Amino acid sequence: MQGHGFNDTALRFGVDRPAGFGAVEDVCNDAGMSEAFSLDVWSDVICPFCYLGSRQLHAALGEFAHRDEVVVRHRAFELDPRSSTTFDLSLDELVARKYSMPVERAHALHQRMEDQALALGMTWSLATARPTNTMDAHRVIALGSSQGLGDETVERLFRAYFCEGELVSDHETLERLAGEVGVSAVDELWRSDAYADRVRLDERAAQDLGISGVPTLLVDGKFMVVGARGAEQILSVLERAWARRAA
Predict the structure, then answer these.
(1) Which residue from 152, 182, 195, 220 has the least number of CB within 10 angstroms?
(2) How far is CA 69 from CA 61, 114, 236, in A?
(3) What's the rounded Cα separation, in Å, for the pair 61 and 67?
């Protein structure tokens, strides 16, 4: 699975089925997707392109004439399932090491992303971001989704990581953040492996669909957009998928 990478913006547009895999619909059904006009979103809460893409998606849905017919499902994708929960290095230093680039180059790339976020109404602070393992964050998102609060949970965790310097693997932090948007019984997650199977199922579905980078949007089980492509292009895909269904 790709990490923080700066190349996670490739586009696979209008895909009916990935080469070498079974029908998209079969994979979707295995992952618990329904016959609704679905928008399945694979992302990670520490992925900058995912937060940018989330805001772009929100804008696109605001312009989509059939917004009330869309069922958004948040799907788990860990950038690095083997990641530690804490690091001694800054995000700039970690990215520089991962991609064999000068720290100054990593900092400049992060500044560019902060500028993109600002254009979407967000004030990021990547200098204080705390990279971490996100397995438990995804479990919290799954719990929030089961309570009808998936959108709110994802947004709160994004903001906590990118804007507030929160450690989104810390259990007490996750309980507090999720509680702020109304998610209940988060503390019970730590007494078992509840929702871990949901996370793994989402990740297996991504693998079966050939998804190796995020964000990835699967629209109505037929059209796939990879990367933060912009609100206009996302809206175009939504409209194309709706027209295909109505035909």
Answers:
(1) 182
(2) 11, 33, 16
(3) 6
Q: Which CATH superfamily is domain 24-246 in?
A: Glutaredoxin (3.40.30.10)
Mean residue pLDDT of the chain comes to: 89
Phi, psi of 226 (to 5 degrees): -115, 125
CA–CA separation, 113 vs 127, rounded Å? 12
Please list the ranges in the chain whose pLDDT falls under 50. Answer: 1-26, 33
Q: Confirm if 12 and 224 have CB atoms less than 8 A apart.
A: yes
What pLDDT sits at residue 58? 97
Helices (H), 40-166: 48-63, 91-98, 103-119, 135-146, 150-164
Helix (H, G, I), strand (E, B) or coil at 199: helix
Q: Confirm whether pTM is higher than 0.85.
A: yes
102 prior amide bond cis, ω within 30: no
| Residue of 174, 70, 62, 180 whose CA lies nearest to 121 | 62
| Cβ–Cβ under 8 Å, residues 18 and 24 | yes
Q: Please report, for residues 27, 64, 78, 80, 235, the alpha-carbon distance to residue 4 in angstroms, rounded to integers and kept in the order given.
A: 26, 30, 10, 9, 25
Taking the domains of the chain in order of start, what are their residue ranges?
A: 24-246
End-to-end CA distance of the chain: 36
